[in-house]
Design goal:
Blueprint: H1 2-33, H2 38-46, H3 60-71, E1 82-87, H4 90-97, E2 108-114, H5 130-147, E3 151-152, H6 160-166, E4 174-182, H7 200-203
Antiparallel strand pairs: 1-2, 2-4, 3-4
Helix pairs in contact: 3-5
């Protein structure tokens, strides 16, 4: 009887050990898959403002992916006071170049506009969220372009009045930024300022 109990006890201990090992393995797997993707950080780190594009057109499939990423961008109270225009015909690009010297012969440019009257307003001080929403949409455009191995640049230097005149379809919208997108040329490279970043200690404060 003593031997049988001893054997049962050993089997019970073995089962418990097995269960503990399995549990520890599950915990390790959960931790492994919840630390976030290093690929995303690499994407963010390697993306740069491209100011030199080749003349290869961007496929409609990639344009649609960029637009979908922009459409899915979060906006305050999901009010989506933002619109995107895809400028890619030779005629439209020529018009756009009359409003800015920063198109860099990109094969496609995404124009982002917002309507403040359609946006969330902070009740404490009346701050309007339209331009913040447009900036989030623009960021999604940049990151999706990078994920598709395309170059991109955020352009804020343009003649807003002339753009409004030459693109009557934007009437009623405030154009906030232009996003030239395309395959980088062989001469494309990050600017000398690209790698300049504050240290994490300077950049962030834990309270």
């Amino acid at each position: 009887m003593t031997q049988k109990k001893s054997l049962l006890q050993r089997l019970t201990d073995l089962t418990r050990t097995s269960h503990r090992a399995a549990f520890v393995d599950v915990v390790k797997q959960i931790e492994k898959h919840h630390h976030g993707s290093e690929d995303f950080l690499e994407l963010v780190k390697n993306r740069y403002s491209c100011r030199n594009f080749n003349n290869r057109p961007v496929s409609d499939v990639k344009i649609q992916k960029i637009l979908e990423a922009a459409r899915l961008a979060p906006t305050a109270k999901n009010q989506q006071p933002v619109h995107v225009w895809v400028v890619k015909s030779e005629e439209a690009l020529a018009r756009l170049k009359e409003t800015s010297n920063s198109i860099y012969d990109a094969p496609v440019v995404f124009m982002v506009g917002c309507k403040p009257e359609n946006a969330w307003v902070r009740r404490y001080d009346g701050k309007n969220g339209a331009e913040t929403d447009a900036a989030i949409v623009g960021t999604h455009i940049l990151l999706e372009a990078a994920d598709l191995e395309l170059g991109s640049v955020w352009v804020g230097s343009f003649d807003a009045a002339k753009l409004s005149e030459l693109f009557p379809e934007t009437a009623g919208w405030t154009i906030t930024a232009l996003f030239p997108v395309g395959a980088p040329s062989a001469e494309a490279h990050p600017s000398e300022n690209h790698g300049k970043r504050q240290s994490l200690e300077e950049f962030a404060t834990e309270i």
